[in-house]
Design brief:
The chain has a nine-stranded mixed beta sheet. It has about 325 residues and is an alpha/beta fold. The protein has two domains: about 200 residues, Rossmann fold (3-Layer(aba) Sandwich), CATH 3.40.50; about 55 residues, no CATH class. The chain has ten helices and nine strands. A hairpin with a 3-residue loop joins strand 8 and strand 9. The radius of gyration is 20 Å and the shape is globular. Helix 1 crosses helix 8 and helix 3 crosses helix 4.
Length: about 325
């Protein structure tokens, strides 16, 4: 396809991406920033408009509810929003069974709407579990302990979403549940990447559109797992959970792990909420601490290329799909 020079290209409408952000209050803004940065880098040659949504049934603090009211559109406006692509995050579960969650009717409506309208959609973590349960009745299973860390995954699929990916890479995972690889394959899902430690990483479903499912978190910044670990330690110190959390695997260097283990030993003998103020500070801002970043950009660039293809030839100015290739 012939590329137009910058001077000759007609003005293009921005790619409109919906972010249905259902994370808890503590991670709400950070998740938005993570996706905004990732998407902006993935489609640097194309203007982007990010529209924010959230399920109204989620229980939030006064500050969290105020932020959603100010920055997020009502879920009812999603149906006529004309988004080109959609990302749906998970929400911290409050019931043992997903259909018992207060937001389940809203979530299943989003699944059906995106499928029927052909909206390329990313389903992240718990949202991935909920979507496959609704679409094909595939139940997730509870793990013996939280799966947290940075795990090596290998590419096992060769579809368009895997274009340009290396044979293996690392990606963060943070979850309490998992989906079975064989059951996914039997139901027609294509597994893109798999980890011997973490299980299924990325998988896709093609019917009316391309659905991409992440059990991991390629959008995470370098410090996300540390913040989650600190939060979980805080819950232990406050008496909200009885078990001290396991340290994220393959994430901290040896010296940091030593400091954190020493704090764990102290916390188990001095269990008070105030002790969290002495939790070891960890510097995770170095880009070398995010070895998953390049692959994350490729995954989202490949997915967004499908969104661009949905545009009419006039809207994409003939060359936008190539810009994302």
């Amino acid at each position: 396809m012939t590329h137009l020079s910058p001077q000759a290209q007609p003005k293009r409408q921005p790619l409109v991406i919906g972010l249905l952000n259902n994370m808890g209050d503590a991670a709400l803004r950070t998740t938005e920033e993570q996706f905004r940065d990732l998407l902006g880098r993935a489609i640097a040659s194309y203007d982007m408009e990010l529209r924010l949504f959230s399920f109204p049934e989620l229980i939030r603090s006064e500050a969290g509810a105020a932020y959603v009211a100010e920055h997020c559109q009502s879920i009812d406006t999603l149906w006529s929003s004309e988004v080109d692509a959609l990302i749906v995050t998970g929400a911290e579960p409050r019931t043992p069974a997903l259909p018992d969650e207060a937001y389940w009717p809203s979530l299943t409506r989003v699944v059906d709407w995106a499928n029927e309208c052909g909206i390329p959609t990313v389903w992240s973590c718990l949202a991935a579990h909920a979507a496959v349960l609704h679409l094909d009745g595939l139940e997730r299973r509870r793990l013996g302990e939280k799966l947290s860390g940075v795990f090596r995954c290998r590419r096992v699929g060769d579809g368009s979403i895997a274009t340009g990916l290396p044979a293996s890479w690392h990606v963060p995972h943070s979850r309490l549940n998992a989906l079975d690889a064989n059951r996914l394959s039997d139901a027609g899902y294509e597994i893109v990447s798999y980890s011997d430690e973490a299980g299924v990483d990325t998988f896709v479903r093609r019917q009316h559109t391309l659905f991409v499912f992440f059990q991991g978190h390629p959008e995470y910044d370098s410090g996300a797992l540390f913040r989650e670990y600190r939060r979980d330690v805080g819950r232990f110190l406050a008496g909200a959970v009885e078990q001290y959390p396991e340290m994220p695997r393959h994430y901290f260097d040896r010296e940091t792990a030593r400091l954190l283990n020493a704090f764990r030993d102290r916390a188990q003998g001095e269990r008070t909420p105030e002790l969290l103020d002495e939790f070891p500070a960890v510097a995770m801002s170095d880009g070398r601490a995010s070895p998953w970043r390049d692959v994350s950009l490729s995954l989202y660039r490949n997915w967004l290329a499908r969104a661009v293809e949905r545009r009419s030839p006039v809207a994409i100015a003939g060359s936008a799909a190539d810009d994302l290739s």
